[in-house]
Amino acid sequence: MSLISESLEAPPVAVSITGLRKSFGEKVVLDGVDLTIRRGEFVVLLGRSGTGKTTLLRLLTGLEAPDAGEVLVPGRRTTVYQEARLVPSKRVLGNVTIGQRRSRSAREAGLRALAEVHLDGKARQWPATLSGGEAQRVALARALVREPELLLLDEPFAALDALTRLQMQELVGELVARHRPAVLMVTHDVDEAVRLADRVLVLDAGRFAADREIDVPRPRQRTDPRALRHQAELLAALGVTPGSAP
Protein backbone atom coordinates (compact mmCIF):
# COMPACT_ATOMS: atom_id res chain seq x y z
CA MET A 1 0.00 0.00 0.00
CA SER A 2 1.34 3.45 -0.89
CA LEU A 3 0.63 6.82 0.61
CA ILE A 4 1.34 10.41 -0.31
CA SER A 5 0.53 12.77 2.53
CA GLU A 6 0.84 16.51 2.91
CA SER A 7 1.07 16.08 6.67
CA LEU A 8 4.37 17.33 8.01
CA GLU A 9 6.14 15.32 10.65
CA ALA A 10 7.10 17.22 13.77
CA PRO A 11 10.26 19.33 13.32
CA PRO A 12 13.07 18.96 12.60
CA VAL A 13 12.03 16.44 9.90
CA ALA A 14 10.59 18.00 6.73
CA VAL A 15 10.59 15.03 4.33
CA SER A 16 10.26 11.38 5.20
CA ILE A 17 10.35 8.64 2.54
CA THR A 18 10.25 4.95 3.41
CA GLY A 19 10.22 1.92 1.13
CA LEU A 20 9.54 3.99 -1.99
CA ARG A 21 9.11 2.00 -5.17
CA LYS A 22 8.24 3.29 -8.63
CA SER A 23 8.11 1.48 -11.95
CA PHE A 24 7.23 2.43 -15.50
CA GLY A 25 6.07 -0.72 -17.21
CA GLU A 26 8.66 -3.39 -16.49
CA LYS A 27 11.40 -0.87 -15.67
CA VAL A 28 11.93 -0.34 -11.94
CA VAL A 29 13.12 3.25 -11.50
CA LEU A 30 13.12 3.52 -7.69
CA ASP A 31 13.41 0.39 -5.58
CA GLY A 32 12.91 0.59 -1.82
CA VAL A 33 14.23 4.14 -1.37
CA ASP A 34 14.42 5.59 2.16
CA LEU A 35 15.20 9.28 2.68
CA THR A 36 14.88 11.86 5.44
CA ILE A 37 15.51 15.58 4.91
CA ARG A 38 15.49 17.90 7.90
CA ARG A 39 14.36 21.50 8.11
CA GLY A 40 17.09 23.79 6.80
CA GLU A 41 19.05 20.90 5.27
CA PHE A 42 20.39 21.29 1.70
CA VAL A 43 20.50 17.89 -0.01
CA VAL A 44 21.83 17.44 -3.54
CA LEU A 45 20.99 14.42 -5.69
CA LEU A 46 23.50 13.15 -8.26
CA GLY A 47 23.18 10.31 -10.73
CA ARG A 48 23.62 9.40 -14.35
CA SER A 49 20.80 10.17 -16.79
CA GLY A 50 17.86 7.81 -16.42
CA THR A 51 18.60 6.79 -12.83
CA GLY A 52 15.35 8.22 -11.41
CA LYS A 53 16.39 11.66 -10.12
CA THR A 54 13.58 13.55 -11.84
CA THR A 55 11.10 10.81 -10.96
CA LEU A 56 11.95 11.26 -7.28
CA LEU A 57 11.35 15.02 -7.58
CA ARG A 58 8.03 14.43 -9.33
CA LEU A 59 6.97 12.10 -6.53
CA LEU A 60 7.77 14.82 -3.99
CA THR A 61 5.74 17.38 -5.94
CA GLY A 62 2.80 15.01 -6.25
CA LEU A 63 3.01 14.80 -10.06
CA GLU A 64 3.68 11.06 -9.78
CA ALA A 65 2.28 8.51 -7.33
CA PRO A 66 4.43 5.75 -5.81
CA ASP A 67 3.69 2.11 -6.50
CA ALA A 68 4.63 1.29 -2.91
CA GLY A 69 6.02 3.02 0.14
CA GLU A 70 5.26 6.20 2.03
CA VAL A 71 6.08 9.81 1.10
CA LEU A 72 5.50 12.48 3.75
CA VAL A 73 6.06 16.04 2.57
CA PRO A 74 5.12 19.56 3.74
CA GLY A 75 2.08 21.23 2.28
CA ARG A 76 4.08 24.31 1.27
CA ARG A 77 6.55 23.21 -1.39
CA THR A 78 7.76 24.85 -4.57
CA THR A 79 9.93 23.86 -7.53
CA VAL A 80 12.44 25.77 -9.66
CA TYR A 81 13.21 24.10 -12.98
CA GLN A 82 16.00 24.38 -15.54
CA GLU A 83 13.76 26.72 -17.55
CA ALA A 84 12.40 29.76 -15.72
CA ARG A 85 8.87 29.07 -17.06
CA LEU A 86 7.76 32.69 -16.84
CA VAL A 87 4.45 33.80 -18.33
CA PRO A 88 5.31 36.15 -21.25
CA SER A 89 2.09 38.16 -20.89
CA LYS A 90 2.77 39.07 -17.25
CA ARG A 91 5.34 41.54 -15.99
CA VAL A 92 8.08 40.41 -13.64
CA LEU A 93 6.14 41.19 -10.45
CA GLY A 94 3.05 39.49 -11.86
CA ASN A 95 5.13 36.36 -12.47
CA VAL A 96 6.43 36.39 -8.91
CA THR A 97 2.94 36.67 -7.40
CA ILE A 98 1.15 34.48 -9.95
CA GLY A 99 -1.53 32.30 -8.43
CA GLN A 100 -1.83 34.50 -5.37
CA ARG A 101 -4.80 36.64 -4.47
CA ARG A 102 -4.28 40.22 -5.63
CA SER A 103 -3.70 42.36 -2.58
CA ARG A 104 -1.35 44.97 -1.22
CA SER A 105 0.32 42.39 1.01
CA ALA A 106 0.94 40.03 -1.95
CA ARG A 107 2.45 42.89 -3.94
CA GLU A 108 4.69 43.90 -1.04
CA ALA A 109 5.80 40.30 -0.53
CA GLY A 110 6.58 40.02 -4.25
CA LEU A 111 8.66 43.20 -4.17
CA ARG A 112 10.57 41.94 -1.12
CA ALA A 113 11.29 38.66 -2.91
CA LEU A 114 12.57 40.55 -5.97
CA ALA A 115 14.81 42.65 -3.73
CA GLU A 116 16.22 39.45 -2.21
CA VAL A 117 17.28 38.23 -5.66
CA HIS A 118 18.62 41.70 -6.56
CA LEU A 119 15.91 42.50 -9.11
CA ASP A 120 13.99 45.19 -7.21
CA GLY A 121 14.34 47.55 -10.21
CA LYS A 122 12.84 45.04 -12.66
CA ALA A 123 9.32 44.63 -11.25
CA ARG A 124 7.56 46.22 -14.24
CA GLN A 125 9.69 44.69 -16.96
CA TRP A 126 8.48 41.97 -19.32
CA PRO A 127 10.10 38.52 -19.22
CA ALA A 128 11.36 38.89 -22.81
CA THR A 129 13.66 41.73 -21.70
CA LEU A 130 15.47 39.62 -19.09
CA SER A 131 18.72 37.71 -19.41
CA GLY A 132 18.75 34.00 -18.65
CA GLY A 133 20.18 34.59 -15.20
CA GLU A 134 17.63 37.30 -14.43
CA ALA A 135 14.77 35.02 -15.53
CA GLN A 136 16.02 32.29 -13.18
CA ARG A 137 16.19 34.80 -10.34
CA VAL A 138 12.56 35.71 -11.00
CA ALA A 139 11.70 32.00 -10.84
CA LEU A 140 13.56 31.77 -7.54
CA ALA A 141 11.71 34.81 -6.17
CA ARG A 142 8.42 33.22 -7.25
CA ALA A 143 9.32 30.11 -5.27
CA LEU A 144 10.50 31.93 -2.16
CA VAL A 145 7.56 34.33 -1.94
CA ARG A 146 5.42 31.33 -1.02
CA GLU A 147 7.64 30.69 2.03
CA PRO A 148 8.11 27.00 1.19
CA GLU A 149 8.96 24.42 3.78
CA LEU A 150 10.39 22.30 0.94
CA LEU A 151 12.23 23.79 -2.04
CA LEU A 152 12.85 21.47 -5.01
CA LEU A 153 15.49 22.50 -7.56
CA ASP A 154 15.62 20.56 -10.84
CA GLU A 155 18.96 21.45 -12.47
CA PRO A 156 18.15 25.17 -12.06
CA PHE A 157 21.52 26.44 -13.35
CA ALA A 158 22.12 24.01 -16.24
CA ALA A 159 21.18 26.48 -18.99
CA LEU A 160 23.30 29.36 -17.64
CA ASP A 161 26.78 30.44 -18.66
CA ALA A 162 29.64 29.58 -16.30
CA LEU A 163 29.91 32.99 -14.59
CA THR A 164 26.15 33.39 -14.13
CA ARG A 165 25.99 29.85 -12.80
CA LEU A 166 28.56 30.64 -10.10
CA GLN A 167 26.65 33.81 -9.16
CA MET A 168 23.38 31.87 -8.92
CA GLN A 169 24.99 29.20 -6.78
CA GLU A 170 26.14 31.88 -4.34
CA LEU A 171 22.71 33.54 -4.33
CA VAL A 172 20.85 30.29 -3.73
CA GLY A 173 23.20 29.39 -0.90
CA GLU A 174 22.56 32.76 0.76
CA LEU A 175 18.77 32.55 0.34
CA VAL A 176 18.54 28.99 1.65
CA ALA A 177 20.64 29.94 4.69
CA ARG A 178 18.27 32.86 5.34
CA HIS A 179 14.90 31.14 4.77
CA ARG A 180 15.87 27.65 6.01
CA PRO A 181 13.57 25.44 3.92
CA ALA A 182 14.44 21.82 3.37
CA VAL A 183 16.05 21.62 -0.08
CA LEU A 184 16.45 18.80 -2.58
CA MET A 185 18.37 19.77 -5.70
CA VAL A 186 19.10 17.61 -8.75
CA THR A 187 22.30 18.33 -10.68
CA HIS A 188 24.88 16.53 -12.83
CA ASP A 189 27.67 18.83 -11.59
CA VAL A 190 29.72 17.26 -8.78
CA ASP A 191 31.59 20.52 -8.10
CA GLU A 192 28.25 22.32 -7.72
CA ALA A 193 26.97 19.62 -5.37
CA VAL A 194 29.99 19.92 -3.07
CA ARG A 195 29.83 23.73 -3.19
CA LEU A 196 26.19 23.90 -2.03
CA ALA A 197 25.15 20.77 -0.16
CA ASP A 198 25.03 19.69 3.43
CA ARG A 199 24.59 16.14 2.09
CA VAL A 200 25.05 14.62 -1.35
CA LEU A 201 23.22 11.49 -2.47
CA VAL A 202 24.15 9.37 -5.48
CA LEU A 203 21.26 7.49 -7.08
CA ASP A 204 22.10 4.34 -9.03
CA ALA A 205 19.98 1.39 -10.13
CA GLY A 206 16.99 2.66 -8.14
CA ARG A 207 18.83 2.97 -4.83
CA PHE A 208 21.24 5.34 -3.10
CA ALA A 209 24.79 4.25 -3.85
CA ALA A 210 26.26 6.97 -1.62
CA ASP A 211 25.15 9.40 1.09
CA ARG A 212 27.92 11.85 1.98
CA GLU A 213 27.89 14.68 4.50
CA ILE A 214 29.93 17.61 3.21
CA ASP A 215 32.02 18.67 6.19
CA VAL A 216 33.63 21.71 4.55
CA PRO A 217 33.14 25.12 6.24
CA ARG A 218 31.36 27.86 4.26
CA PRO A 219 32.21 29.82 2.20
CA ARG A 220 33.71 26.86 0.37
CA GLN A 221 36.76 27.10 -1.84
CA ARG A 222 37.04 24.79 -4.83
CA THR A 223 40.70 24.13 -4.01
CA ASP A 224 40.02 23.10 -0.40
CA PRO A 225 41.52 19.60 0.03
CA ARG A 226 38.38 18.44 1.85
CA ALA A 227 36.18 19.58 -1.04
CA LEU A 228 38.47 17.85 -3.53
CA ARG A 229 38.31 14.65 -1.47
CA HIS A 230 34.51 14.72 -1.49
CA GLN A 231 34.49 15.31 -5.25
CA ALA A 232 36.76 12.32 -5.82
CA GLU A 233 34.59 10.09 -3.61
CA LEU A 234 31.39 11.17 -5.37
CA LEU A 235 32.90 10.70 -8.82
CA ALA A 236 33.93 7.19 -7.78
CA ALA A 237 30.37 6.49 -6.62
CA LEU A 238 29.20 7.65 -10.06
CA GLY A 239 31.64 5.22 -11.69
CA VAL A 240 34.01 7.92 -12.91
CA THR A 241 37.71 7.29 -12.40
CA PRO A 242 40.57 9.74 -13.10
CA GLY A 243 41.17 9.99 -16.82
CA SER A 244 37.83 8.43 -17.78
CA ALA A 245 34.97 10.19 -19.49
CA PRO A 246 32.01 11.10 -17.24
Describe the model.
α3 (104-116) packs across α4 and α6 crosses α7 (225-237). The strands form two sheets. A six-stranded mixed sheet has the order 6-7-8-4-9-10, with helices on both faces. β2 (13-24) and β3 form a beta hairpin. It is built from seven helices and ten strands. It is an alpha/beta fold. The protein has a domain at 87-147.
Q: Unreliable runs, pLDDT <50, ≥5 residues?
A: none
End-to-end CA span: 38 Å
What is the helical fraction, as a range of percent? 25-40%
- The average pLDDT is 92
The secondary-structure class comes to: alpha/beta
Placed side by side, the strands forming the largest sheet appear as: 6-7-8-4-9-10
Topology pattern, helix = H, strand = E: EEEEHEEHHHEHEHEEH
The percent range for strand residues is 25-35%
Strand element count: 10
Broad shape: globular
Major β-sheet, in short? Answer: 6 strands, mixed
| H/I helix tally | 7
Report Rg.
18 Å
Write the layout of secondary structure elements.
Elements: E1 2-5, E2 13-24, E3 27-38, E4 42-46, H1 53-61, E5 68-72, E6 77-80, H2 92-96, H3 104-116, H4 132-144, E7 150-154, H5 162-179, E8 182-186, H6 190-196, E9 199-204, E10 207-213, H7 225-237
Parallel strand pairs: 1-5, 4-8, 4-9, 6-7, 7-8
Antiparallel strand pairs: 2-3, 2-5, 9-10
Helix pairs in contact: 3-4, 4-5, 6-7
